[in-house]
User: Fold this.
Amino acid sequence: MDYDLVIVGGGLAGSSIGAAMAAKGTRVLIIEREVEFRDRIRGEGTLPWGVAEARELGIYRPLLDSCSVETRWWSAPDDNRDLVATTPSGLRCLNFYHPEMQQSLLDHAVAAGVELLRPAEAAHVSPGPPPAVVTRWNGAERRITARLVVGADGRGSRVRAWASFPIRRDPGSFAAVGTLYRGLALPEDAVQFVPNPEIQLLSIIFPIGGGRFRTYFVFAHGTRPPLSGRKDQQAFVDESVAAGASADWFRDGEPIGPLASFDAPDTWADHPYRNGVVLIGDAAAASDPCFGCGLSLTLRDVRVLRDHLLGDPGLVCGSGRLRRRARPVFSCTAPDTRLVRRPVVSRRRQSR
Assistant:
């Protein structure tokens, strides 16, 4: 074998599992295609239970020291929740600008002993035995074998498609519009969560440090046209205010990032392991981002996989054991999103 682990994708999932395993002496290669991480308008807030996973994985302190801020309060119109006092972990949310987080963790992984190919393209993945990845790097194509190939390449995972994992999708989804602001009239130690179920709107604002705020509004899929670009900046503010956000929050704010819309369905693979290829993070199961569990679920994926691999000195992944452990992580949260959607949708039907 060329490596013990070959990881496709150097974001949160890939860098975290790479660093965790390299620190234990495992030969790890990460293949990352982007020269510089881009703002994809998502993935800023880690809930307290996900922060507990970050601590367990040893990435909490590197993130906090390099690119993250903590928020103690979760503020809604009728509540200002103290997360330290009211969560089992007693921890705050950990927020960051996603591209800064990705670079910080990739640097951390390399420092832990991970070998990095960047920019490099994974051109194909073949399940085993042994699994292999065909890469294109520096104008040359190379076939690399491993004990385990990890697909950590996000919602549109090509590894998932190459390895023929069936994917399931919840049709009752929300859509979201997001952008980045500087200088909103808001405290930087509180997440703003403003739901308006009567008209199926939700405004969410995460402070991410340096006076910056990631701002979203969420709506039922198909009920509003998508927004994008500077031409729709005022429409974004108007929709956020319609959801219940204060117009005063935005009055002196400056948009400093792209504005774009995206669909937000739950998607998942029931069995994220097949013949030496395992999926983690959004490649395995992507939760509706308006419930804020995506980053936390990814970190739990990483911790579960790490514990499984460290318990198997040969790094031979028993498919039955990994399937049984991976699927319940996502199924714990997916039903909760449907419980929230159901009364909202039924109200809309009754009002017609």
About this structure: Residues 174-264 form a domain with the Alpha-Beta Plaits fold (CATH 3.30.70.2450). Residues 82 and 99 are 28 Å apart (CA to CA). The chain has two domains: 3-71+94-169+267-337, 174-264.
